[in-house]
Design brief:
This protein is of the alpha/beta class. The chain contains 21 helices and 13 strands.
Amino acid sequence: MRLTILGGGGFRVPLVYGALLGDHAPGRVTEVTLYDTDADRLKAIAGVLAEQAGDVPDAPVVRSTTDLDEALRGAGFVFSAIRVGGLAGRAADERVALAEGVLGQETVGAGGIAYGLRTVPVAEHIARRVKAVAPDAWVINFTNPAGLVTEAMSRHLGDRVIGICDSPVGLGRRVARVLGADPADAWIDYVGLNHLGWLRGLRVAGRDELPRLLADETLLGSFEEGRLFGTDWLRSLGAIPNEYLHYYYFNRETVRAYQEAERTRGAFLAEQQSAFYSAPSYASWDRTRAEREATYMAHNREASGAGERDAADLEESGGYEKVALALMRAIARDERATLILNVRNRRALAALDADAVIEVPCLVDANGAHPVAVDPLPDHATGLVTAVKAVEREVLAAAESGARASAVKAFALHPLVDSVTVARRLLDGYVAAHPGLAYLGA
């Protein structure tokens, strides 16, 4: 079976390839095609993969190309993991937003909107080429903002595009661990949008163990989300939020921490990865990866006084490559699985329409991912979900029409941007920073 990775020169590609090296079952991936617009990054990552495969006699063959149609032709699965504008673009998104006193994170708030406006036109072009060149392929979308980009691609590919994220998986594993449960034996009641969801229950043998966690101060404060949000707030919610909700619940504190930081997350990663790509090797990649994971959401932990990431939390961080392979195996081999994925809503969540991409548990088989119907969200969560989905829809409208008014509306409607005037200045700042947003300048 052939797997194509779009964004094949990206830093996290060795994670995917490493997972493939451990799969020796019938029907496994035997060929990997890396596609990227940057030939130098492709060469660097191909060299790292060759080192990884050194002692694996049946390692998947790796090929590289800068031609999109060539990369797609003959693929059974396509992993889309592109970053339009690169890390320099991410750093610019952060700077423009922080200058206006609002959040510039790559998937949340103003930064996420800017990233979406840059990425959606490219993602839709990819979706059209997949439909034309590899109509039977399944697309697994890693590209952020994952829910928004998956919804954009679904307008061309329908249910043959599925979005993934490792945050809900990591959250479920951490909650299961502190409760002494095996994640494989637990049903995780999780619902929301990508980077905007809540774990509302964890059932083992039919019994919901979450109330036991919420009632135990020591257990509740012993893992990442307990330290990040505080035990009192988790009890008030009666649920465990996805870590990205820290940007909403503690927005002022986080923005202040970002403004006072020596450099933004994007600038840090750009410098870090520049050093790696200048002298690539598997050893330097692994060191860089470990530092990247240890410093993840460092400004949020600083703002909340959560301290450094615990080793156990790092071990349970999810692993998006494992989610992707589990999804691919379930479809390719008809090995039924239950995974939390980004898919079209259908009738799963009553507050949103059928085509809205949501993040919920899905039953996966050879016919794809099927969302499980979930109980309604409480009013406070429904308000956030519907507001952010409205923002996503304005981003899609702006990308389709090029209308400045839709882009301004997307910024202005976001819960973390509290001014139409600021929304207009944000758009002007992003258009000036990114040539790819010139289509919104009029």
